[in-house]
Structure formats: structure tokens, C-alpha cells
Design brief:
The chain is of the alpha/beta class. It is built from 17 helices and 15 strands. The strands form four sheets. Strands 6-3-2-13-12-11-10-9 form an eight-stranded parallel sheet. It has a three-stranded antiparallel sheet with strand order 1-7-8.
């Protein structure tokens, strides 16, 4: 074995950095990493094509897959038939226990956007998952309060989300080469937890983030086949739900399901990352693709509505689950704040259930019952509504591309909010905390990405505030300084500021904020 661990030694790491786990990392790296790198290059080529005038559209070469109504994805696996409420959160120890105890049907155990990928978190997250599946996980905080798994109700089904294909793992090398964060997270979880989950009557289940094409789904399917064969697990045991959170993927939903059909459980609609991808994909396309401040872009604006309607129809046509978006609100001690926020969340979940989604996400245990109740009003005792095919829906590429129907109105308050949230999140992320409560919302990396991307887009398209002032680099710098002054001008905020400013006002658009931020950590 030619695997080298360069990260610091973590207590109990030998339990998850096992010979089997590292051998699977090595196998996946050698077999699939060249293909992964080629697919990342293909992303850049697509951006270049769009910059030269080519537009996103449904693929002509895969038309037969879309039009063939005979194929279906694999039957719903144990623990994934009823997904009316799912809770998301990092694999931090206390949050793991709280999520499993929350009453949600599924826990998205997140090694991606809500986890800072420092070596401590990467390894400890795997330890926590293994302990959770074994039923041995517990945690005592600094005041002596003890957290442990409840025995009086079913625990949430674990669905692990590895890092996106673009993210490296610099602390684990194969033949001296940096590995893929995706394949490291996947391989270690498979090696340590897959057979434990099977023994519990479930299986190793995954959420796949940031996919941009059906060819990337094909790569993941190859990883599944390799891992199942290597571990002696029956082919088809793995199930994956794909997040349709990039603009190109919205045009390839059928094809993504098809590539993963023997391992697929469904698709999910991710709001902030989808908006982030709209900007990234059409960074040079002018004002037709300029978005207004993020909190005004609801799921009911035309281009977002088209995307979610198509997602539900596509999933149900193929026997897959359609999972809705995030309710990021965190219950407050202020009843007035709760009253307004709960009403918005309730309306959003009622809309999703009415549109045919089979479930939806929350970020806090305090929101589980509200989400569950709205879906139960529609589902009743049925586990899902996959039988509802939504045949009346007809979505064209023009509908998906109709961003200009949402006017790009920006206020000073909206601009300042984007700046403040980005700085606060980055400061926390650089400290190793990837899920952060900001302004009564649970924020993760997707929030920072859309916030800084919008600012870049507004500057480069010479967008004005609603009072007529031009948004430019100097305004952003001035507002950033004043927002940091409100927070406390510490060295950590200055480091966050440097990362944020470098991305928000740079001449060239940076694809992922987390890549330079990752370089800043050990």
C-alpha cells in the first residue's frame, strides 16, 4: 500500500483509518481519479462554451433515455420509503445524537457544506458515524449535560453526504498525490459502516452533492460498483440521492437517474447552491442572469418554480423520491420572530407537499414536527406520493433559463447582509465550524457561496442599489469594514475578510470559495 497520512494524529483514528479503508481509498484513487479530474476540466469547458454563446439545453444525444418510459430506478430501500422530514447537519458528536433523536425520518450526515474539512473533522466525523451506528455514541458537555441515543422512538435513517468532486484531501496521499475528498469520505464510510448498516437492516446510503452532469453520476456509479465488489457486498445495496443543486444538472435529471438507476433513491432540490450555480454558469452572460438579493429569490419565482416542478415530475416518472428544500430557521427566544418565521416555513412546506414532493429538509430539531405535519396533511398514512406522476407539468429549457423574469432589485440592507453573513461564516469555517447560526438561520458553505457570488455579479454588471448608488469594489470594501466593526475587529475576522474580498471583488470569478479557504488551514 502506498497511502501516506500527512495529517496530525487524531485520537482513535486507527478505528477508521483501517487497512481496509485505506486500501479502498487507494483503489478508488487509482481507478477513478483521472476520470474525476477530466470531468472537472469538462466543467471549465462548459463554462467556456457558454461564454462563447452556447446555451444550456436538454442533451440531444441522450434524448432516447428521456423519452423511454420503460426504465425505473431501483425499488425504495429499507428506511427510505418514508422521507417526509429530513434533518441536516454536520457529523459533530452532539449534533449527531440530536439529529438521530430528532424524530426526523432521515438524517443527512453532512461531511460537506456544514463541515469544515480539516483533518480533525474528517476523521472524527467517521468515528462519530461508526459509534452512532453501533449505538454507543454519547457526549457530555462542559456543564456535565449528557447526550445519548433515545430508546423510546425510532432513530433517523443515516444518509451520509461526502464532499463534492471538486474538493481535495491534502492529508491523505496515494503515490504522493492529493486524493479526492469525495472518495476519501465515501471509502472510509463504506469500509467502516456499510456492513454494520446492513446488519441493522438498512444499507450504506448517500447524498451526492454538486454533480453537474450525468457523466459525473456515472463516475459515482463506478465507485459504488468498485466498493461493493471490494467489500463483498451485493451489488445494488448502496442507495444514493442526488442533489440537483447546479444549473447544468437541472437539464440532465433523467440521465442522472438513469446512470445511477440500480443505486438511486431520488433527487433533492437545493436552493442556495442552485442560485450560486446560476451565477457561476452565466458569469459572463450579462444582466439577463443577474439575481436580486438572495432572500427575495423564493422557490416560487419563475426559474426556480420550473426547476422544482420538473424535478418532482422526473423523479416520480422513474419511481424515485423527490425531496424538497431546506427550512434553515432556528427557533428563537423571541416569540414574535418565531411567529413570523414559523408561518413562512409552514407555507413553504405546504407548497412542497402540495406540489408532490415526498419530503423536505429542516436544519433544527425544533422544526421537525412542523415540517412533518405539513407533509402528513397530504400523505396521510402513505409513506410517499411517488404514484403522483405530475403528467400535467411541461417544462422547457426556456422555462429553466428564465432568470430575467425576476428583477434584480438590491438594497443596501441586502448587500450588507450578504457581506456580514459571508464574513461571519468564513470566520467560523476557518475555526473548524461549518454549521453556524447567523440571524436565526443555520448557515453552511452554500450561504457564503451565493452571498459572495451575488456581490461579484452585481459589481461586474454595474448594478445599482435601489437608491441609485453604483455597487462597486470600493463600496463593498467600505461596507465590509463597517460590518466587521460591528462584529469585533479580531485577527480571525481579518483573515475571513481577506478571503472574502479576494473572491467578491476579484477580476476573475473563483469557482469555489472553499478552495482558497481550505489552503489556509493545516
Amino acid at each position: 500500500m502506498t497511502v501516506t497520512i500527512t495529517g496530525k494524529t487524531i485520537e482513535r483514528q486507527e478505528e477508521v483509518l483501517s487497512d481496509t479503508g485505506l486500501a479502498l481509498v487507494e483503489l478508488l484513487h487509482r481507478d477513478l481519479n483521472p476520470k474525476r479530474l477530466a470531468l472537472l476540466e469538462a466543467r471549465k469547458n462548459r463554462i467556456a462554451d457558454i461564454a462563447s454563446g452556447k446555451e444550456l439545453n436538454f442533451l440531444e444525444e441522450t434524448k432516447s433515455i428521456r423519452e423511454d418510459l420503460t426504465w425505473q430506478v431501483a425499488p425504495l430501500a429499507p428506511g427510505l420509503q418514508d422521507r417526509r422530514v429530513e434533518i441536516t447537519g454536520p457529523t459533530e458528536r452532539k449534533m449527531t445524537i440530536n439529529a438521530l433523536n430528532s424524530g426526523a425520518k432521515v438524517w443527512l450526515a453532512d461531511q460537506e457544506d456544514s463541515t469544515t474539512p480539516n483533518w480533525q473533522n474528517v476523521v472524527q466525523g467517521q468515528i462519530n458515524l461508526k459509534d452512532a451506528i453501533n449505538g454507543t455514541i454519547e457526549f457530555t458537555n462542559e456543564t456535565g449535560k449528557k447526550y445519548e441515543l433515545r430508546k423510546d422512538q425510532p432513530l433517523a435513517t443515516i444518509v451520509m453526504r461526502p464532499r463534492g468532486l471538486h474538493l481535495p484531501e491534502k492529508h491523505l496521499l496515494v503515490d504522493g498525490e492529493i486524493t479526492s475528498g469525495s472518495f476519501v469520505d465515501f471509502a472510509l464510510y463504506m469500509a467502516n459502516c456499510a456492513k454494520l448498516q446492513i446488519a441493522n437492516g438498512l444499507g450504506p446510503y448517500f447524498y451526492l452533492p454538486k454533480l453537474e452532469s450525468h457523466l459525473e453520476a456515472r463516475l459515482w456509479n463506478q465507485a459504488f460498483l468498485i466498493a461493493q465488489e471490494f467489500l463483498g457486498i451485493p451489488q445494488g445495496t448502496i442507495r444514493a440521492t442526488v442533489l440537483i443543486e447546479t444549473y447544468p444538472a437541472a437539464f440532465e435529471m433523467d440521465e442522472i437517474l438513469y446512470e445511477l438507476r440500480e443505486h438511486c433513491a431520488g433527487l433533492n432540490a437545493g436552493r442556495w447552491d442552485y442560485m450560486f450555480s446560476v451565477i457561476k454558469t452565466h458569469r459572463t452572460s450579462g444582466k439577463d442572469f443577474v439575481l436580486p438579493e438572495r432572500n427575495t429569490v423564493t422557490m416560487t419565482v419563475p426559474f426556480m418554480r420550473a426547476y422544482t416542478e420538473l424535478l418532482v415530475q422526473t423523479c416520480h416518472k422513474r419511481g424515485a423520491s423527490a425531496i424538497g428544500g431546506m427550512a434553515a430557521f432556528i427557533p428563537s427566544s423571541d416569540p414574535k420572530i418565531n411567529e413570523v418565521a414559523f408561518a413562512k416555513v409552514q407555507a413553504d412546506k405546504a407548497r412542497e407537499a402540495g406540489d408532490g414532493f415526498d419530503g423536505s429538509w429542516v436544519a433544527h430539531p425544533g422544526m421537525v414536527e412542523l415540517c412533518k405535519s405539513e407533509f402528513t396533511k397530504v400523505l396521510g398514512d402513505n409513506p410517499n406520493q411517488i404514484s403522483r406522476k405530475r403528467e400535467e407539468v411541461s417544462i422547457s429549457s426556456t422555462d429553466l433559463l428564465n432568470v430575467k423574469a425576476t428583477p434584480a432589485v438590491v438594497t443596501e440592507a441586502g448587500l450588507r447582509n450578504n457581506i456580514s453573513v459571508s464574513i461571519q461564516y468564513l470566520e467560523s469555517w476557518l475555526r473548524g465550524i461549518g454549521a453556524v447560526a447567523i440571524f436565526n438561520l443555520m448557515e453552511d458553505a452554500a450561504t457564503a457561496e451565493i452571498s459572495r457570488s451575488q456581490i461579484w455579479q452585481w459589481i461586474h454588471n454595474e448594478i445599482k442599489l435601489d437608491d441609485g448608488r453604483l455597487i462597486d469594489a470600493e463600496m463593498v470594501k467600505d461596507f465590509t469594514d463597517s460590518e466587521i466593526a460591528k462584529l469585533g475587529d479580531s485577527a480571525r475576522y481579518q483573515q475571513a475578510k481577506e478571503t472574502f474580498i479576494a473572491c467578491a471583488i476579484s477580476q476573475e470569478y473563483l469557482d469555489f470559495l472553499t478552495l482558497p479557504a481550505y489552503e489556509r488551514m493545516d
